[in-house]
Amino acid sequence: MLNDERLSADEAPTAHSVGPSSSSNNSSTTTAASAKDENEEHISSAAAPAVTTSAATDGTSNEADGGDDEGGDMDGGAQNPMYRVDSMFSPQILDTTNDASFPVVQDDVVHQPPADMKTLFSAPPRKGAYMTLIQDLLRPVAAAAVKADGTAASSPTSHGGSASSSSAASNYLTRDIAMDVCRDVTAVLTDEPSLLDVKIQEGETLVVVGDVHGQFHDMAHHVLNQQYEKPAGSKDRKFLFLGDYVDRGPQGVETILLLFALKIEYPDQIYLIRGNHEESQTSRIYGFLFEVRTKFNDLSVWARFNEVFCYIPLAAIVSAPGHRFFAVHGGLSPGLTDVDSIRSISRTDYGGMLDNTESDIVDGLLWSDPSDAVVRFSRNERGCGYLFGAAAATEFCEQNNLDFICRAHQMTMQGYTWAHNKKVLTVFSAPNYCGVSNNLASILLVTHEWELNFVQFAMAPNRQPIAPPASAFSSWSNYFQS
Length: 482
Ligand SMILES: [Mn+2]
Prior knowledge:
By secondary structure, this protein is α/β, with parallel strands linked by helices. The chain contains 17 helices and 15 strands. The strands form 3 sheets. A 6-stranded mixed sheet has the order 1-15-14-3-4-5. Strands 2-6-7-11-13-12 form a 6-stranded mixed sheet. A 3-stranded mixed sheet has the order 8-10-9.
């Protein structure tokens, strides 16, 4: 199939290591490389029966993909590229019942951002220059919420995600603004370590957010409302985003511009860590490149965003007195034993300049998945990172004095899933992922007293349609092969 060949070929020239697959698996190197992206977030594959088996163990089984059960002997190369492509559009319900000891609040209210973003946080904006941008970005969301209550919210078009926001888009989607944001957020991110320390102070609540994937309306309605609708008198919320801001969904540009602008203005309230889609070799294929080209008509903006992505911290330690957890997009790898070793990794060197050990660790941080079928580690069928088992998770938590590992990176039907005896939590914050998955999303709220609460939500009204399929921009992806 042409698509597969294109995707595979497109991966091959990148400098970035595809991890352990390259040496041990010659016969399927190409396939594995393509799998790295195609398996993305797995909307999981068609191999349902295998999953059912592992799901039975503790009721958590993340959708860790039909490939999980093959995880131990993946060298068999059981990769059928055709179903990988198809799996994007035929997701499967895999999990799950969740533990009742963690309260879940259903958020089925239509939230509306305030008219004046100057009041978004009580702290004064650090720079002030981006408050208008923040307001412009959120204004269409507020307008859409009003429409949704009335008769006719505009119906989604089937193609071209930016269409219905284009009138507002002209106000802020300019190359100059994007470049300014990139410059200023780089300065802020550079000051942060590769391993963030996020401390929840007395009276504070941290909001942990999984994959957003360009679902800007969902983020504005159901995530940021935690701040703009917080109880009167309570402290400002802190937000920790676990990566995958762009690709897949229709408004990766708006999502990343808003998050970067918020990071510039409120660096102590907004924390960002890097996902595997904040990487050029991924974001060129899964929608962001095409979206940037459509909205800016200038591919240098896409390249600039990807430069900035390299400055996003790789993971975080979230702590309150007596407790802490490790926050990361993907997960563990065999080389990562001391969590503090992440601090010394030069994150901007990832993709070619790191030594093998550190590169492998970063691969794992961005790409790994938990699996019930693995005791410690095996290769991830994504073609990058690892599958890590309960023993690996437990040992890592014990050695590093962690309550658990909180990560994103996989769609889960209830928006969150515990795995590995509650040592691994997956949070996914893109409802109805890709416009077809019918999954709920969630965010995790953590208080200073270490109360964990999930807020679960469905797709926001009047959300933009999904991005065009990969085939629509194959020529652009080919362009970058050279
Ligand atoms: Mn991911």
